[in-house]
Amino acid sequence: xxxxxxxxxxxxxxxxxxxxxxxxxxxxxxxxxxxxxxxxxxxxxxxxxxxxxxxxxxxxxxxxxxxxxxxxxxxxxxxxxxxxxxxxxxxxxxxxxxxxxxxxxxxxxxxxxxxxxxxxxxxxxxxxxxxxxxxxxxxxxxxxxxxxxxxxxxxxxxxxxxxxxxxxxxxxxxxxxxx
Length: 179
Hints:
By secondary structure, this protein is α/β, with parallel strands linked by helices. Among the domains are: 53-100, no CATH class; 112-179, Vaccinia Virus protein VP39 (Rossmann fold, 3-Layer(aba) Sandwich). The chain contains five helices and seven strands, in the order αβαβαβαβαβββ. The chain has a seven-stranded mixed beta sheet, sandwiched between helices. α5 links the parallel β4 (113-118) and β5. The termini are far apart. The relative contact order is 0.17.
């Protein structure tokens, strides 16, 4: 795995072999960041990464200039992995890594974010409830985007906050907004 853009472009990291995460492919990540880049100023974004996994999306945001990042990941091994890479990348001052269940985090969170990314495990039984839970808690700032990574087994086109989607093979990014 590698960072594909920004000041840390080309940085390679090898996730633990027995990793519970399913990392976003470089191809899909490149498409995603082209969309984000055309709609947001990375240096102005308050970013939330739900189901942080390897931390790949957070590293990419930091590499492109985002300095207000929160990454939520339950698995302790992955939390240590993320923190280790943050130290190596010298971004630990810009990222808060929270070792917690995403759904518990959403219930207690009082912050608002400009950009929220969620890359949950595809077989997560309550994956379809994530957008509603996020909007019920009002975690997205006005005009912000919530990007949910999922496979073709999930459909959000009829959701009232749905904006658009991008398809990269079996990886789909559904984008929601407050407006």
